[in-house]
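hey so u asked for the seq, here:
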Amino acid sequence: MINNIVEFINNILWNYMVLILLVVSGIIFTLKTKFVQVRMLKEMFKIIFSGVGQKTRGKEISVFQAFCVSVASHVGVGNIAGVAIAIVTGGPGAIFWMWIMSFFGCAISFVECTLAQIYKLPRGRKQFYGGPAYYIKNALNKPMLANVFAILISITFGLIYVSVQSNTIAQSVKTAFGINTIVSGLFLAILVSLVIFGGITRIAKFTEKLVPMMAGVYLLAALITIIIYIDKVPLMFWLIIHDAFSPQAAVGGGFGMVFITGVKRGLFSNEAGEGSIPNAAATASCSHPAHQGLIHSFGVYVDTWLICSATAFIILLSNQYTIGSELTGVSLAQYSLANVFGYYAPHILSILIFLFAFSSIVGNYYYGEVNISFFKGFKSKVSQIKTISNLIKFFRFGVVIMVFVGSIADLKLIWNCADLFMGLLCITNIFAILQLGKYSFIALEDYITQKKNGISVPVFDKNIMPDKTGVFAWNL
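ran it, structure tokens below
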């Protein structure tokens, strides 16, 4: 009954509100930034690779570490199980709409992450907090809406999404090794507690090492698959594009189902517009807000055009899928890899899924912590800070519990709840960035102007802003 209610709400939410907001905002931001996702692509590469190996002190978070925390959060189950579900539900054409929405998602991500940097709050020497809750309250001056967003994202990422991730880990381990989900759930809960009770510094250092490694291994598997089935690659691309506009009869709901499935699974994967990535973007210590906006815009490409496409190519080229089949999610991905690489492939994928999903759990937890911290405000009483500190500890225990519960729970209800909260977050965040987006455009043009004038590392001056309300961390 609960699942039916959630599905009914999701149909209304996605068909009439979220999809329209995502498409409209993506087009607006693409035009207003003059196709930032294309014209600044070279600069994105330059910024990211220049930050690799950057040394930090104490609790300072580097630009590259913030990028890895972000990628760790949204590179996970959505890139493997989510893509498999998209193909089985909406057919190969759903992949095309994932690609299209990720293109516009790059512009959305740039805007929200640049705003997060502009309106971040200082929390010590080169330490910062920020995100949608902060710019909704301090820049948009809507504290009640900010509170709603903070609560929503804490529940969504700290409780709902970690359940999805842990469920996928448990199912993949059971499929590959026959380990009971209760056993794997207990092990995972203990491992998560060891990391999250260590704080954001440990999270940043952990993901900085883990993300590049796991992404590289998975992409290598996809590349080998492409080489093995190189003769089928042209037909695969034709099938994706053809079915995007003329879906197969097996796809119930026709074109609408293909489009909606592609957008939903794409958003779950890259999170552009959802308001989650800005929380990680705000933590970085950098010289200019646009600097971080460009990095996380590139992260959408990494997530969808690389990792999601890798899964899609493995499944489509191995041709082990059936539209509407019960074989879906991570099991389909494992079965497809077994067809390509042999008996032990599901075991290897199970390990990779563990790395993907575990890093997502860690990153998702951090988003919840940041937004719980939001409630203590910029200037707070000692008693209030102590209360929030205790709440964060309680939240950590809640995350650990939900990791275990998710491992043994029903997957369908968990994914539907994820879609519900994802939609609510999108509506709240996009409502805000549509009004504040103009300030990210100003920051972008300032960054480009400084680069043209020969300044290799542009420095942000808050005085270029026509309205400096809510700008606390710059030019102190």
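The chain has a mean pLDDT of 83. Residues 54 and 62 are 7 Å apart (CA to CA).
lmk if thats what u needed
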